[in-house]
Amino acid sequence: MASLDSFKSKSTLTVGGKTYTYYSIAEAEKNGLKGVSKLPGSMKVVLENLLRFEDNRTVKKEDILAIAEWLVSRTSEYEIQYRPARVLMQDFTGVPAVVDLAAMRDATAKLGANPQKINPLVPVDLVIDHSVMVDNFGTPLAFEQNVELEYERNGERYEFLRWGQSAFDNFRVVPPGTGICHQVNLEYLAQTVWTKDEDGETVAYPDTLVGTDSHTTMVNGMAVLGWGVGGIEAEAAMLGQPITMLIPEVVGFKLTGKINEGITATDLVLTVTEMLRKKGVVGKFVEFYGPGLDYLSLEDQATIANMAPEYGATCGYFPVDADTLKFLSTTGRDADRVALVEAYSKAQGMFRTTDTPDPVFTSTLELDLSTVVPSLSGPKRPQDRVALKDVTPSFAKALPDLAAGRGDVAPGAKFPVKGEDFEVGDGSVVIAAITSCTNTSNPSVLVAAGLVARKARALGLNSKPWVKTSLAPGSQVVTDYLTAAGLQADLDAIGFNLVGYGCTTCIGNSGPLPQPISDTINENKLVAASVLSGNRNFEGRVNPDVRANYLASPPLVVAYALLGTLNVDITTEPLGTGSNGQPVYLKDIWPSNHEIAEIVRQHVNADMFRKRYSDVFKGDEHWQGIAVEGSETYGWNGSSTYVQNPPYFEDLTMEPKPVTDVVSARVLALFLDSITTDHISPAGSFKSGTPAGKYLMERQVAPKDFNSYGARRGNHEVMMRGTFANIRIKNMMLDGVEGGYTLGPDGSQMPIYDAAMAYQAQNTPLVIFAGKEYGTGSSRDWAAKGTNLLGVKAVIAQSFERIHRSNLVGMGVIPLQFKDGESWQTLGLDGTETIDIAGVETIEPRAMVMVKITRADGSVLNVETRCRIDTANELDYFKNGGILHYVLRSLVAA
Prior knowledge:
The protein is α/β, with parallel strands linked by helices. Helices cover 34% and strands 18% of the residues. A hairpin with a 2-residue loop joins strand 7 and strand 8 (201-206). 58% of the residues are buried. The mean pLDDT is 94. Residues 74-564 form the Aconitase/3-isopropylmalate dehydratase large subunit alpha/beta/alpha domain. InterPro entries: AcnA_IRP_Swivel, Acnase/IPM_dHydase_lsu_aba_1/3, Acoase/IPM_deHydtase_lsu_aba, Aconitase/3IPM_dehydase_swvl, Aconitase/IRP2, Aconitase_4Fe-4S_BS, Aconitase_4Fe-4S_dom, AconitaseA/IPMdHydase_ssu_swvl.
């Protein structure tokens, strides 16, 4: 689509003898956009997007002027329409997205239209990386055995994705066993500058994307602006809908100084996460600048960018610099592309050098890199950083809360494990996992882990026998350079064998603990621990047997596997006794920065990346052996327990039914602060006694074949039953009860799903009350889909996390926000109330909405709340019954 180009920005750039069209920020500044060269780099990307898509309909001249006006106000409530270049998916969120597309094709056919109208209009890449589980570990056969189990469990899902790969245009699938989507994106898919042939021209523009995983932000480390969205919002984007967003605030994070000897990128990112959470950056862009960037590798930058969801920001952006070009070359990108990135970013004022003036930011904060110390984060939240020297006393302080309600088991008590010659107790490290996109994209910390293993092995140390050890790299290239350096053999020797390429422990796919260890933990209600190099450690996420979870760098993961406990100070006490009978300390096996850098220099090269990614979509013999039946619409299998046609589009008509007020609703749950999407959305494993387990057993699925909730996201029946079923969630309607329970219509305690179905049978709508930061965490569309299918009409909270609020609206659920200082606690609610929400039929974005609360004794409270349907586009989605209904009607009408 040609831009109206009100600011005469359309220009040409010649690189290597080829001419590109681009939309010049410098020219736009000359022609009316005063001062925009001072914008942060991330905002320049947004500005370029508006310049390129100006059409006087979705992007108007005044929208572009609003970006220049931001330089004065540095904040804005102005709404713009933004179009990312592409969409990235992982399979947990990708499968339900493709299920929705298939369902939309069915609905389109029923409306008498061509199903081919439902097709991605921008490039979509789906990387199958979230389904591998750590069933087998600590042996050379672990990888092959886990792959076999993965295909056995997920055959129906993979057949469905193979159908989608052939049925939809503009849709590519990276098969299982390749790597984590964010690392594949960083190492292969992302280009920093994107190109497209259009109307006889080759247009160059910034590489931008949205992804169905919140850690899409990792690619911000190579100056690619991208962030996580829910699957429903991603589907709309890939179907040609612009993303409606408010012009963001941009917080500048200045880095000075240089990291000291022995400090890792993980220590740095945990420090950054703590600082930004304290500042408060939810819904804001964060951009890093300053002279300290000269001392960070691009992989270090990607490590920091990855954890933007943990510090609450929309993105964590780094500008293009010389290291970006070096990284593109090292990872095998085409030389012409690297030359274009350099020329384009310099032409647009997006290339950082030591002399680059500081941009204009909404606000700033600063960190001297030399002040960073070795750190972990835990035991429940990524932002709860603990200096390594303080881990033992910090755990002791947290233990009473973690062990609450278990009775008279004395803290620190140990219990024998049946059939073994060891004991476990509170603080025993039972999982040590090198896992997750945060760190496995960074050669420096993986090589450091290998060197710790090498030195420990040479001194005769080994992992403690009660520790489940695993290595799940983010790409096959990691195995190549660890093997080339001889470090994989050292890791293998102490139990860190390859278990798979993908997101494992961090997503809850840690697999079961050995049964005797699990039994000892559960029989004695122990607070066992995990140490993982991931980005998430929320309650109930890593493993149902583990209550304390700590994020750490890969070399510290190895060190804690050797030590086996949190109850001993790893900085001063021995890790164990060496083969010579002498104690071995952490300092004895910790590698120097020079040792690490030398191995990275020798063994990480472009040929590895070119070889691994030369045929990345082909897959192994398992993938190639999946039969594909090609057709426009999917042949749903009614007996499948993995993939089912969802009910969202039943009885769909071209004209939406009017929305109505919420009348005589009952309270499904009362929640406190920081309810995460892990608490809401089904994730991890589940047992036979749960509603989801009962559903599967009724269909002759044995518990050993349950797989995970994530793997079954394509079946709404399983996912409805798992919504709010987290084993650690606490509904304050119940006194001291942990798990997904509530009070049903008859006043008795029952699973939330069962209560919701009982209320639906009575045609009674439901509401949920919550505290601050409701919906923190991964961009899980099922947190909103499940809420909708349970019959919840509104969520009333003190504040919402960005993605989940958007997803609730996208599923037709009203988010309402208390006024400052008000909460369900200050109102004295106990869950027995009846709720009426008036004015829904005439609701407007961010308007005040009156909520009538009638207590059980008949007394009435009228509470004014803020409607968090934030934009006009979101209001259209809500009035259509959801974003997918809106998009489907729009495409059919076109």
